[in-house]
Amino acid sequence: MYALQKTKQPMTFLTESVMDFNAVNFWLQKLNPLWSSNQSLGKIVHKEMASDDMLSLTLKVNRHFKFGQAGQHHPVFIDVKGVRYERTYSLTKRDNQHVLLNVKKVDTGKVSTWLADSAKIGEIIEFGAPFGDMTLPQQNQPLVLVAAGSGITPMLSLLEALSASAQMKAQPVQLLYWVKHHQDAAFKARFEKLAELHSNFSFKIFYTQDIEADSRLNDSHLSLILNLVESTVYACGPSGFVAKAEELFSQSAHSFLNEAFSMSVVANDDIGFVNVTLTQSNKVLSIPKGQSILASLEQQNIKPTYGCRMGICNKCVCKKVEGSTKNLVNGAQNSEPGNVLKICVNSAQTDLVIDL
User: Which domains does the chain have, with CATH numbers?
Assistant: First the structure.
């Protein structure tokens, strides 16, 4: 028996056979900037400040946009003064056509500054496919969300998904959120509304640099959690915060998931240089200890593939043939040959050979 091959639609055949995607997209976007034959695009329709240093952008997305799961991240591609940048953000689904993109403005950040100061209503932004493992569990169980700074953004996504699916009626959810000052707390009004809507949800915000300062995350906060042994704990924030959360919760909670949103300086006294051999390009370079391998290679005009620069998306992963490395997020050292290496969050401790 012969299988019948499904024929392509006339427009699909035409676009693939006669015109390239770039040309098709150019003319489609003359009619509507969100139209595209293959691109995942969003148009800014609203801008507001979620806190003193966090901007919230509401975007209308096209049919190619992949929402992914709550808590995941999306690559975001931005053109600033003719240079294309890729950044990674956690998005919150508003409805089937809109997402919320929250950006913490960084003084030296080219993309965050452009989004905050220059991006206008109607601006078009391109997205990549979602990724990340910090998603909701399949089973109903108590959840504890622990966040600091911009680490609150994936937590908002998780909470909105829980609220929309009515899961909060079946399981207790606690949010513990650390910021420096009252004006730095984002989405407080939304959390208050969720607490009104769902008796199973509670939250507490800690202000570590106000006049009557709260303490940073420590073991005294364990007493605030109702049923830690049966809870899944999510932690997101700077790497130092996440490392502390892992120390507190990884052994005592039912399960523990974490992501570091930004790199903190790991206490170390690494000084000096080591040699790194790149097997694919047959190059030997001298790079400093205590700095990410990715940043060190970039300083010598080597341009490895990368994405989030936070050890989440795995775009920079390569094979380590030999040598010792240190994880800049948690300080863990690894000397095993043949391991997969995330060069954006690891530094070289000894001479190193990597498949790059």
Answer: 19-127 (2.40.30.10), 143-262 (3.40.50.80), 273-354 (3.10.20.30)
